[in-house]
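Question (not urgent): is this output format expected?
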Amino acid sequence: MQRQCLECNEKITGRIDKKFCSDACRNSYNNTINKDTKNLVRNTNNWLRKNYRILEALNPNQKTKVSRAKLIEKGFDFNYFTSIYTTKAGTVYYFVYDQGYLPLEGDYYALVKRES
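Got this back:
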């Protein structure tokens, strides 16, 4: 029995458990299979990365205060964060990895960096 590549149907030579004739066919096949879920993950990761870069750029000293308008102007999306931290006093911080923000009164945010 002759084995064929799952992507291009070319004859496969080599190992008995080989499924593709080349790395290009393997990559193409797997990209096609995972396309739907990859788009969601890719888009979410892009937003998280963008939010992280914005917080990092606006918070060089590990703690500062910034307006909501400034965050929005830079392209920050408040729907994308990685975790929520609630203090014993009930204060809620939103984090994008180690960069966090705390909503304050008057459309301002306290930016903080979590210690490792």
